[in-house]
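S., here's the first fold you wanted:
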Amino acid sequence: MSRFSEAISEGDGISVIPVLEGDVGALAALAEEAGAEGIAVRAADVERVRARTGLPILARDGDPAAVAAAGADAVVVSFEDAVDDERLEAVWELELDVAVDVREEEQLEDVLERIDPEIVLISERGLDDDQEDLELTLDLLADVPAGKLVVSEAHIVSREQVLALERAGVDAILVHGLRADADFRAALEELVRGTEAGL
């Protein structure tokens, strides 16, 4: 178990993981001050962010060996790569947590049967317009066995949504769209502190 899985399994309540874009170094420092338990960045930003924060880093793409060498603690692996035995075997040999990205029920079933990952990432990015926010996460969550860590990449705009996922049993959320300005820390802090206070 790496620092990323430890952070989201041992923290108080649900872990809020901001997805950083832009001046990722400065945002990483602000995320740490705001109480985030980890951060998520593109592979190209891992090394720069590692120099600015001690938080666990989830690499959202890239070669697992390269992101591990750059200082990442975990990596997202797509469903397609996860069911490729040769690719996945190389990933397991690294000291990285692996979050397998699933986007539908059939993918989840296949991944659980063939791979049995410790972390399941339920991604709601690019869903059809007729699907409501959190709907896919809540639907698939029921099929995730006890003992697995569940990360949701849902469209989060309010503290109430975060708390709904926490009550349902989600361990962490990836939060997109926090503005890279003076409001970043305040917006993130509201999500984090709100979950800790149980508001």
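And the second, which I think is the more interesting of the pair:
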Amino acid sequence: MLTGGEHPLDLASGYFIEPTIFADLPTESRIWNEEVFGPVLCVRTFRDEAQAVRMANDTPYGLAAAVMSNDTERCERIACALRAGIVWINCSQPTFTQAPWGGMKRSGIGRELGLWGLHNYLETKQLTRYVSTQPWGWYLRR
């Protein structure tokens, strides 16, 4: 652990920890492999872009990701390669109600927000009516 991990004194009675940064954890470690919702960051180094994408996608989760670089083409390329429901480029956390929100793999099943989210709450039904006096198909022959 590089920093953090302590209970803040004013919040010691709850389930709170200080913002915490872990570095170079084994890829088998529990915290590296679970979806942590808290002020926790796990950091690993990588040799090249391809390895970074493989490491980021090597998880059963895929709610959100962020790519930071001055190279906009690299950002676009990596963002498209990441298996996450939302990928922020040179920012983190903005969400717009007009756009779909949800994850991939075991994260954020389905979509909320926007037109896509509305369709998750609807059930589509097909009604078909035959209006001819002629038989339709082999099962309606008289």
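Why I say that: The beta strands are 20-23, 40-43, 61-62, 64-67, 86-89, 104-105. The CA atoms of residues 20 and 71 lie 28 Å apart.

Talk tomorrow,
H.
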